[in-house]
Amino acid sequence: MSRCVFLDRDGVLNKDNPNYTYTIENFEILPGVVEALQLLKKADYLLVVVTNQSGIDKGIYTVDQMKECHAYLQQVCNGLIDHFYFSPYHRSVNNSLLTKPGTLMFEKAIAKFDIDARQSWMVGDRGRDLIPARTLGIRTIQIGDEVEPEHRGEFIVRNLLEAATVMVR
Ligand SMILES: [Mg+2]
User: Fold this and answer.
1) Which residues have CB under 8 Å from 166's CB, separation 6+?
2) How far is the CA of 169 from the centre of ligand 1 (A)?
3) Is 8 an active-site residue?
4) Which residues fall within 8 angstroms of residue 39, CB to CB, at 6 or more apart?
5) What are the strands, taking DSSP E only, across the chain?
6) How far does the centroid of ligand 1 lie from the alpha carbon of residue 94, in Å?
7) Model confidence band, residue 160 (pLDDT cutoffs 50, 70, 90)
8) How far apart are the CA of 42 and the centre of ligand 1, in A?
9) What CATH number is attached to the domain comprising 162?
10) Within a 13 Å sphere around the CA of 147, how many CA atoms are in the beta-carbon half?
């Protein structure tokens, strides 16, 4: 079985933007992210992005635009990310289990890559990122202080590089 780091995207890999991020010009990769991904890969973690992209359902941007951003991220980090899962749905129209805090993106990854949940981590900046991980027995790391107290991560750090030092030690 493999171990995996599940990564939220906005606010973890790239700077969060209240008006959605869907162009390469606005896709600002956060400091230390590439180094963190390299450390994690070296420690033999699979790297899987799990991201809610409800702007697709809202008609703000397309799947192709999102994929361009992901291709750009892969180019910058030299293809270190093993897979991207996204939910295009918005809660107002669809209660898909794909959408975090639903667990389906995680479960798809676990099945596809034969992941051992108990040896894996989720890094996110919102309670909805950590809830599905906890449901599945995946350990949690919270970036920043925007997670509700009842959903707080097992570790609280400032950025992905700090999170990586927790996961590789
Ligand atoms: Mg986020």
Assistant:
1) 141, 155, 157
2) 24
3) yes
4) 161, 164, 165, 168
5) 3-7, 45-52, 83-87, 121-124, 139-143, 155-157
6) 20
7) very high
8) 24
9) 3.40.50.1000
10) 26
Is residue 64 among the annotated active site residues? no
Q: Which residues form the domain of 117?
A: 3-168
pLDDT digits (tens, 9 = 90+) for 44-103: 999 999 999 999 999 999 999 999 999 999 999 999 999 999 999 998 888 999 999 999
Check: pTM over 0.90? Answer yes or no: yes
The total number of structural domains in the chain stands at 1
Q: For residue 8, report the distance from its CA to the centre of ligand 1, in Å.
A: 6
User: Could you read off the pLDDT of 22-60 as tens digits, one per residue?
Assistant: 999 999 999 999 999 999 999 999 999 999 999 999 999
Could you tell me the two tokens for 135? 């449901």
